[in-house]
Amino acid sequence: MGATKWGILGAGKVSNDFVVGVHTLPAEDHQVVAVASRSQDRAKEFAEKHGIRTAYGSYDDLVNDKDIDVVYIGTINQEHLGHIKLALNAGKPVLCEKPLCLYPTQTQEAVSLAKNKKLFLMEGIWSRFYPAQLRLRQELDMGTIGDPILIQANFCISIPAEAIFHGGVIHGLGIYPLQLANYVFQDTPITVAGSGHCQDGVDVAVGWTATYSNGRAAHLFVSLTVDASNEAIIYGTKGHIKLGQLCHSPTQLTTPKETLDFPLPKSSMMGNYWNPTGFSYEANEVRRCLQDGLLECPSVPHVETVNLSKWMEVLHKQIGTLHSEH
């Protein structure tokens, strides 16, 4: 297989960061060959900035480009389902930014369509591919802290909800600590109980406890109103492990014996968010899955994507956000 040829659907901030990450990888493995925006001028500006040869002013043109192997979707959350369907119906595998969709019914619809089309679909939970989180899995499997029992994690940054996350903090940030708890416990919650604050119907600060089988639990908090340490600590029967600051894109892991650093790939390009070159890990995993003929990523299986969507919907209902599918 030659280079994996990416088409970028959406020319916004997160798409910029994804391309920054991809461009740290060898050109013989990855190439970004096209970008699309509803604005031809915006697509052209994006393409010129990143050295992309084709700029489309239409998403339809992008998904029908025969030179593209896989489509990355970096549009706002509310538009994910429509863009996933557009790409899949054009025969293109898809990597879509998290959340895959805003509602469980939409998430299941996207997953079912991918299965029916026999096409690869993955929710972009990039944390799963960071070397620090992979090392965390190794340490847990080796019994470094015994049996993990409790997780405490937060992800709090002071950014206007409506300006960044198009739907609030649960979908914008909450998916990260929740996926981490599932990753550590290798399980899905039994119950989730949360409360929080809303501004104009948008969730801006939410805390919750997720309980798991065998007495395990996760205490998680996310906020768009304050900056915090953004660390995650996993407590076990024989000690604890800490994922360093920015636990959604960690570059440091502290075990009972040592602190391990995992430097990110270097780039001269600027990102809009945190650790943009870390998208390279996710892109490499998509390439591996396509090479192996997989329809879903083993590290982010469809069943977990659907379950995460269901639990986020539970949280929305518990705190009373204006979160309606209709």
What labels describe this entry?
326 residues; alpha/beta; 6-stranded parallel beta sheet; 14 strands
Question: Would you mind describing this structure in some detail?
Answer:
The chain has 326 residues and is of the alpha/beta class. The protein has helices spanning 13-22, 40-50, 59-63, 80-89, 104-117, 131-141, 161-164, 169-185, 279-291, 302-319; strands spanning 4-9, 30-36, 54-56, 70-73, 94-97, 121-124, 148-156, 191-199, 202-211, 217-223, 232-236, 239-243, 252-254, 259-261. α1 (13-22) links the parallel β1 (4-9) and β2 (30-36). α4 (80-89) runs parallel beside α5 (104-117), α5 (104-117) packs antiparallel against α10 and α8 crosses α10. It is globular.
* Overall geometry: globular
Number of strands: 14
The largest pleated sheet is described as: 8 strands, mixed
Helix content: 25-40%
Radius of gyration (Å): 19 Å
Distance between the termini: 43 Å
Strand order, largest beta sheet = 8-9-10-7-11-12-13-14
Summarize this entry quickly.
By secondary structure, the chain is α/β, with parallel strands linked by helices.
Q: What's the topology here?
A:
Blueprint: E1 4-9, H1 13-22, E2 30-36, H2 40-50, E3 54-56, H3 59-63, E4 70-73, H4 80-89, E5 94-97, H5 104-117, E6 121-124, H6 131-141, E7 148-156, H7 161-164, H8 169-185, E8 191-199, E9 202-211, E10 217-223, E11 232-236, E12 239-243, E13 252-254, E14 259-261, H9 279-291, H10 302-319
Parallel strand pairs: 1-2, 1-4, 2-3, 4-5, 5-6, 7-10
Antiparallel strand pairs: 7-11, 8-9, 9-10, 11-12, 12-13, 13-14
Helix pairs in contact: 1-9, 4-5, 5-10, 8-10
